[in-house]
Amino acid sequence: MNATSELSAVGRTIQGYFDGMHRGDTALLRRAFHPDAYLFGYYQGPFSRFSLEEWMNEVESTPKPAESGEAFDMRIVSTDVTGRVAMAKVVVLYEGLRFTDYLTLIKFDDDWKIVNKAYHHE
After folding, report:
1. Given 57, 84, 110, 114, which residue has the most CB atoms within 10 angstroms?
2. 2-to-8, 13, 91 alpha-carbon distances in Å
3. Residue 116 β-bridge partners
């Protein structure tokens, strides 16, 4: 495994996540996430836990930031890759809230997928 190419591949998966979030595009999000992924965190106060399907329903019922004129403001803060496992810290502007997400990724065959997302917003 070439470390530079693996970092690039992880970055492409995360970019798909960013694009899916900004557009409210569940097809893009499904490509970035493993079907058994879970999301944990704090959203407007209380602790939240979502399966990917539950979260897809939330995304579909939420206004799409790209359509509401919200600026695309998402970036990778750090990435660490060890073999076929990676962790990324990202910041995301979504519906006016600044989220910090910790994404765990696993490489399946030749494809990196997000298997877990832990998040908090300011």
Report:
1. 114
2. 10, 17, 26
3. 38, 104
Express each pLDDT in 53-88 by its tens digit: 999 999 999 999 999 999 999 999 999 999 999 999
Measured distance CA(47)–CA(82) in Å, rounded = 30
99: tokens are 């989220």
SS3 category, 76: strand
DSSP 45: S
CATH of 3-121, one of 3.10.450.50, 3.40.50.880, 3.40.50.1820, 3.40.50.10800: 3.10.450.50
Can you tell me the distance from the alpha carbon of 87 to that of 58, in angstroms, rounded to the nearest whole number? 24
